[in-house]
Design goal:
Length: 404
């Protein structure tokens, strides 16, 4: 399978190709574990799950890395409010995060390292950047200051950024000057997260984390890197700057970013508490129904959260599953044959290969089940059932949604 997607850095639709004798190296930025996962996160991880499943369905191995950010100021503040240590809170929310992903049928990453386990490598990375000669100190914090680069080398950080993200607390749109600087090290002492470092006790900057992990598990550049659009700046911009400074090459061969889930017109966000947790959503809908709803639009389109639409999607999925199951149990007198299921599988494969066309793929399933319901005789000839089951299983594998 050749998957063509919109590469966020170049702004062009390009093919994600496998390098000879190597699995696809996919790095997807993971959560900062201080609160329950919301459906905006889920939508991002669902799209990358479909990318991975599509490659696997075609026999292409994928090495999937997702970081767990287990120390950060938000974790410190919430842990203090709850009377917990930062580590206790982070471990609790990490367990909840993976329970949520498991509930939605999202394949677990090949590797999901914690930031706190990568401190030595992050310290060495900060030292390498210091040798570049562009580190400055401001009070108790050390920053890397990138040089001016050609426009095509990295993501824009001026008002053009509005094409990729939305401003929110802590991430306003920068204008100029220090916009491209990012933290390497911050001096601090226990009980806050603190380790020995190049400039005294403290903690490394967030952007070092993903670079260090990607370098160890995948090598730079990785094949495919992504997350939500809000990560374009500052996170992926900073990662890319590290790669350009140390290797002269981008962090990734392809960048893929997913659009937001909105609630009342505003981006879902843990920091603003404008969210619906996955657990609350699953109190309303089945896991496949929630999955069907969240990937209904194209990954590059924003989704306005509506409970009525979620319930409708859940019922639509249930009806599709009932119809296909009944087809396999039917008498087989004049009903559709295995060729129809194989045609469905091929069409879904083609839809997903073309800029991850989940709306078209789900519409195919919808049309297929409508055609089954319109067939009065119902059922599939007994001799066709094994081939038909294999075809339906392929669709299930690619979308991650049970259909029979």
């Amino acid at each position: 399978m050749v998957l063509r997607v919109l590469d966020t850095l170049s702004g062009r639709v390009r093919s994600i190709t496998r390098r000879a004798k190597r699995p696809i190296g996919m790095y997807v930025c993971g959560p900062t574990v201080y609160a329950p996962t919301h459906v905006g996160h889920a939508r991002t991880y669902l799209y990358f799950d479909i990318v991975r499943r599509s490659f696997l369905a075609d026999g292409v191995p994928v090495r999937h890395v997702m970081n767990i950010t287990d120390f950060e100021e938000k974790i410190d503040r919430r842990a203090d409010a709850l009377g917990l240590t930062w580590r206790t809170l982070a471990r609790r929310e990490e367990r909840g995060f993976f329970r949520d992903l498991d509930a939605l049928g999202i394949l677990r990453p090949t590797y999901h390292p914690r930031a706190s386990d990568f401190i030595p490598r992050m310290v060495r990375l900060a030292a390498r950047l210091e040798k570049v000669g562009r580190v400055r100190r401001k009070e108790n914090t050390w920053y890397y200051c990138p040089p001016d680069r050609p426009r095509e080398a990295n993501f824009p950080v001026s008002t053009e950024l509005a094409a990729h993200a939305v401003p929110e607390p802590g991430h306003p749109f920068p204008e100029k000057g220090a916009a491209t600087e990012f933290m390497l090290w911050q001096r601090q002492d226990p009980p806050l997260p603190s380790w020995r470092g190049p400039w005294g006790p403290g903690m490394p900057g967030w952007h070092l984390e993903c670079y260090a992990m990607a370098e160890q598990y995948l090598g730079i550049p990785v094949d495919l890197h992504g997350g939500g659009l809000d990560l374009v700046y500052p996170h992926h911009h900073a990662e890319n700057e590290i790669a350009l400074a140390l290797t002269g090459r981008p962090f990734a061969r392809f960048f893929l970013h997913t659009a937001f889930v909105l609630q009342q017109g505003k981006k879902m966000s843990k920091s603003t508490q404008n969210l619906v947790s996955i657990r609350d959503a699953l109190a309303i809908a089945s896991p496949p129904g929630l999955r069907w709803y969240l990937v209904g639009p194209r990954y590059s389109e924003r989704l306005e959260w509506r409970v009525g639409d979620l319930r409708a999607a859940t019922e639509e999925h249930r009806e599709a599953r009932r119809t296909i199951s009944a087809w396999f149990r039917g008498s087989g007198r004049g009903g559709p044959a295995a060729a129809d299921a194989r045609n469905l599988a091929r069409a879904v494969r083609d839809d997903l290969s073309c800029d991850l066309g989940t709306p078209a793929a789900i519409a195919r399933v919808r049309d297929f089940t409508s055609a089954l319901r319109a067939t009065a005789a119902g059922g599939i000839p007994r001799g066709d059932r094994p081939a038909a089951r294999r075809a339906i299983a392929e669709v299930e594998m690619r979308l991650g949604i049970p259909l029979a």
